[in-house]
Design brief:
Nitrilase/N-carbamoyl-D-aminoacid amidohydrolase; alpha/beta; 37% helix; 6-stranded mixed beta sheet; Rossmann fold; single chain
Length: 617
């Protein structure tokens, strides 16, 4: 069977635009002689749709589009795509068509008169032939699906083109016994499908990126394929949806666990996978077809999201020349690049897609001469083009000459647009006016934050006047400890590096400079400082970043507590102080811009802590 893998970028809520993408991809698959075209999870509505699902009119339009897509299918090419369904539509799953029986029973469907499902729809010959509902409903980290969706009671299989196929939706394939530290569900949809005789497993996903996850995903799929002698087609979306980034990287395995195709990273992709292919020789034609049909598919797309791609990422065709249909020594393939390269590309894609979907043509930020604003300016230039990046230098009496010089050097390297306006007159006038209220109280952090808030006022005014998206420049170390000013440097529309620790900022800058100096060496080597008072450095308030970041990573990303962290750092009091600082500053993070998620635990939708609380260690 020839399967067209359609790794698309859906826009949440854009039912008409997403419908067009599905139809265009299906037509491309038909013209390429594919037997089946497969699209990602919730491709019609975008993932995650959140409370849009609760709106009756939204579900009505989704149901209409779903029916329309089903009617457009022909007699040669079938279609699988993700959408939301309600019990009346899901009742279509009772159609047997002489194949294996589908999920549930008529009685159960009648009892679920108002239930909503996250579904995969199998369409053929002008009809929705089968609805496969998601069985495992995730409720952890960034996933809150039980708020909206009901689970299927049982997985099943059906026959198409002589193959017994098991279709699952995202989480359904993740319930394996060696999934360390993860939720273990009482049922396993994959096991049920294998027991029913499945020969081909198709999983449609909207699986968000975090570094290291793609390798874990590959190893999981490879193990399922190899241990059970089944072929696997895994189709992921490539999209950025506010804070979440979906990296694509769809994968196809033969029945011995060999990865035969890896979709493009952080980009839409389209390719044909022949399920009968077991060796490199058999794959030659389909791999060539993949290379040519991708350009045709991309060229046929006219919607906004289709233009979003990352030129630094490329498709990877993976073929093991030694593999045969009887080979059980499955070689392990590297599917993940270095941390620096992956996070670099993810952030650029995140900015680019955010701007495209919200119709921002330009971005702006305050440029200080420090490493954080420097790397954000670089990311902005890569995402929307240097001609569309507008930075503002906002010096004060505490700004050193070297900071201005370094900032100007970066501007020249990036070829971005800039202006300079001092905050000093406004700062002096503000202090003068507030002295009427403050009296003779000594200056303290209030006056330091005042400078940051004046800069925030400048930048939001520029954003407001010219329609730029304001990018914030705070890193994860600063957001964690509250070393940032609410309504000051935290103000903006997108927190670009809010999930990247300070020490990792340096690593990524070195990666950026691997071929030529783009981020000036002076910026990388200078002692970090907010320059809000004379001779200030970050280490006046924080431990050295390598020490701080080690603590923060263990606490935030690894969920370790004070005893475990202290055992590794040797300073229990320091650990207690800064872990409490993280908890106390939840109120700041709650009011900040959405943070692009690149780690397994970012501030935002996947980390929920109370603001009003008295828990202290």
């Amino acid at each position: 069977m020839k399967i067209a893998v359609c790794q698309i970028n859906s826009i949440i809520g854009d039912i008409e635009g997403n419908k067009k993408k599905i139809i265009d991809g299906y037509k491309q698959a038909t013209s390429n002689g594919a037997d089946l075209a497969v699209f990602p999870e919730l491709a019609l509505v975008g993932y995650p749709p959140l409370d849009l699902v609760t709106k009756n009119y939204f579900r009505k339009k989704c149901a209409e589009a779903t029916e329309e897509i089903g009617k457009l299918t022909n007699n040669t090419t079938a279609l699988i795509f993700g959408s939301i369904t309600e019990s009346d539509i899901a009742g279509l799953s009772q159609k047997n068509d002489g194949e294996h029986k589908a999920d549930g029973s008529e009685k159960a469907e009648k009892e679920k008169a108002t239930t909503i499902f996250n579904s995969a729809l199998f369409c053929f010959r002008g009809e929705i032939k089968r609805v496969i509902n998601k069985t495992l409903i995730p409720e952890y980290d960034i996933f809150h699906e039980s708020r909206y969706f009901s689970p299927a009671e049982k997985s099943s299989v059906f026959t198409f083109k002589g193959e017994i196929i098991g279709v699952t939706v995202c989480e359904d394939i993740w319930n394996h016994e060696d999934r360390a530290g993860a939720i273990q569900y009482p049922i396993d949809p994959i096991e049920e499908q294998l027991e029913a005789g499945a020969e081909l497993l198709i999983n449609i996903s909207a699986s968000p990126f975090d570094y290291g996850k793609r390798t874990a995903k590959y190893e999981m799929l490879r193990k399922i394929s190899r241990n059970n002698g089944v072929k696997i087609v895994y189709v992921n979306c490539a999209a950025a949806q506010t804070d979440l980034i979906f990296d694509g990287a769809s994968m196809c395995f033969n029945k011995t666990g060999n990865l035969l195709k890896l979709g493009k990273l952080f980009s839409e992709d389209y390719f044909i996978f022949d399920t009968n292919a077991t060796t490199a020789a058999n794959l030659t034609s389909s791999l060539k077809e993949s290379a040519t049909t991708h350009s045709g598919f991309a060229a046929s797309e006219k919607s906004k999201a289709s233009a979003v791609s990352n030129p630094t990422s490329g498709a990877t065709s993976v073929v093991d020349d030694s593999s045969t249909s009887g080979d059980i020594s499955t070689p392990i393939v590297t599917v993940e690049r270095s941390f620096e390269e992956e996070v670099h590309d993810a952030i650029i894609f995140g900015i680019k897609d955010y701007c495209a979907k919200l119709n921002f043509k330009t971005v702006c930020l305050g440029l200080s001469g420090g490493i954080d604003s420097a790397i954000v300016a670089y990311f902005g230039a890569k995402a929307v083009g240097p001609e569309n990046v507008f930075v503002t230098l906002m010096p004060s009496e505490f700004t050193t000459d070297s900071s201005t010089t370094d900032a100007l050097k970066l501007i020249n390297n990036l070829r971005i647009q800039y202006n300079s306006v001092s905050i000093q007159p406004v700062f002096e006038k503000t202090k003068e006016m507030l002295k009427l209220l403050f009296g003779n109280t000594p200056e303290d952090v209030t006056e330091e934050n005042m400078q940051s808030r004046i800069r925030g006022l400048y930048m939001m005014s520029i954003s407001n006047k010219f329609g730029h998206l304001l990018l914030t420049t705070g890193n994860k170390s600063e957001l964690a400890t509250g070393y940032a000013t609410l309504y000051g440097d935290m103000v903006g529309g997108l927190a670009v590096i809010g999930d990247v620790f300070k020490t990792d900022i340096y690593r990524i800058c070195e990666y950026i400079n691997r071929n030529e100096e783009i981020i000036p060496r002076e910026i990388i080597e200078k002692v970090p400082s907010a320059e809000l008072r004379h001779n200030q450095t970050d280490q006046d308030s924080l431990p050295p970043y390598p020490v701080l970041d080690k603590m923060l990573k263990l606490y935030i990303e690894e969920n370790k507590e004070i005893d475990e962290i202290s055992a590794l750092t040797g300073d229990e009091e320091m650990v207690r102080q800064f872990l409490n600082m993280v908890d106390r500053n939840e109120f700041k993070r709650n009011q900040g811009a959405p943070v692009l998620r690149v780690s397994k635990k970012a501030f935002g939708s996947g980390r929920k802590f109370p603001i009003v609380q008295k828990w202290r260690r």
